Amino acid sequence: MSQAKTLFEKVWEQHIVAEPAGEPTILYIDLQLVHEVTSPQAFEGLRLAGRRVARADRTLATVDHNVPTDKDRIHIKDPIAAKQIEALRKNCAEFGVELFDVNSVDQGIVHMIGPELGATKPGMTIVCGDSHTSTHGAFGALAFGIGTSEVEHVLATQTLPQSRPKTFRIAVEGELPHGVTAKDIVLGIIGRIGTDGATGYAIEFAGSAIRALSMEGRMTICNMSIEAGARAGMIAPDETTFAYLEGRRFAPKDADWERAKQEWRKLPTDEGAAFDRELLIPAHELTPYVTWGTSPGMVVGVTDVVPDPSLGETEADRNGLARALEYMDLRAGTPIEEITIDRVFIGSCTNARIEDLRAAAKVLAGYQVHANVRGMVVPGSQQVKAQAEREGLDHVFREAGFDWREPGCSMCLGMNPDILQPGERCASTSNRNFEGRQGKGGRTHLVSPAMAAAAAVMGRFTDIRTWQYRTASREAEVLA
Amino acid sequence: MQAFTTLTSIVTPLELSNVDTDQIIPKQFLKRIERTGYEDYLFFDWRQDPGFVLNNPAYGGSHILVAGKNFGCGSSREHAAWALEQYGFRCVIAPSFADIFYSNAGKNGILAITLSEAEVERLLLQAKTADGYRLTVSLESNTIEDESGFATSFQIDPFRRDCLLQGLDDIGLTLRHAALLSAYEQKHDTENWLLARA
Question: How many whole angstroms separate alpha carbon A52 and alpha carbon A57?
Fold first, then answer.
């Protein structure tokens, strides 16, 4: 009998091109996703060395980080952003890479469109010059973010030298409590193991609570595995995965589809396979979470209080905690539900999929955004936006007082005009609460889409588990 | 890339854990399409504070940065490594580094050294309190020494060490395996459920 293997080991071993003695493994890359921000210097490197893109058919590009999210976004007012997007257009044309440009019906955040197009598939190796590439691991792919030198390396060779990460299984077992979402699972995990808790590891998320999630929820969890420091996050493919992929543009068809499923069914971790590390989290211990500080690990339950910074282990840790409280303008001991907010951002590659918008709209139906709050929804992709509009979700958001915008990364990182003003406090469905992430001096609290919507109505954080749902408008009834 | 052999320099203490790449190089500078010219943008927002360590002339001309654990976490932006290197930092010492930053640093001739929490705390204290505190970092002998008797050795992957010592870039190294790659691709491309497009 052959040795029991993990999902990670199977995918890794199927992509070994060479294992030179004393050097990293040369790993084959099935798909590289490209966006405007981390690619210009890579294409320039190819040009200077007289190299070509080795496999344009394994490369897809889109514009997401810089694009404005207003209606008139074809005309970018920021000249430096416009130049960077123009550079991507020229590079894609020169090197033969397919680009899903701003006017494409398939444009969107790079980690949204890979799955939507069916380009992301189980068993693949996928890279992108963006740390949230871990998202694609939800399909049982080995997917990770890389730097620009590595982008150039993959463009030139379709391979990457990689040292093999260790394996870490995090099992979430049991039924999720009411009001606890995929976002809360991953925030809860990061809160437990820390932002460097999985450094050097490829995580496999497993257990009944993970199996029960939709692909959207699985993507949310894998997306933020980088926030625990992991090289990658993976979830074994199953019937949920196949149902999501079937019929998508780049998914295999007919006999190829049946053959593909046969191969994909061999990928899940074998019974008895060993992991370097394991963690079990009972689902009933999880709660709706809110980050209070400037690192995703600075997180507590919504009914908790802001913690005491003197609990840090080292001077550097205590400095970090104290600095975070000062930056966030919070005092230890303050109940989370007493923190008032100015802005709400529903968007990003973490939580801007159709289910996320449905969850937020369900909370908002029949309510108005609080007078002190400005809310914006940025669907993650054109496909999500179109789907949401077919379902009437845009009306629910607009009736509640939210701004309904065009797809892109937007205020997740504020590279486009969507930013917080200094001192503004935001409930955000994105992935990072770093200082200045959403705008210089801006204060970010990470939450689930439902928690963000509820905070928008109340003007402060509130426990979604006690929310009184309404279905006041005709559109909202469609949701029920 | 520039080779790294031995370096002696004043040490800059950055006594914070979880320094993320958004702080090392804020987003507004990621719109540039050039690979150079990032030195003035290193820690741009933090440098607005006159008390920030990079604004202290005592650390002027320093090539060694010492920081808390999980240095370089967050965004994959290689601009963080470019900014550090172009500012003059050739060596960063911390109890741990985020994976992507660690890789980016190596590809830009920056030696990222992992030491124990206790050793890093000692170096931070010395750099904060001892005037002109200097370290000599030798990649040839995998050692770090100061001028008052402190000496330690560090671990580094032998391949990464070789690349840094010789200033080797990766693409040329990988292309030594072109025949294996070609054979792999021929077989792999027939497994069409793994094609990016089907």
Answer: 13
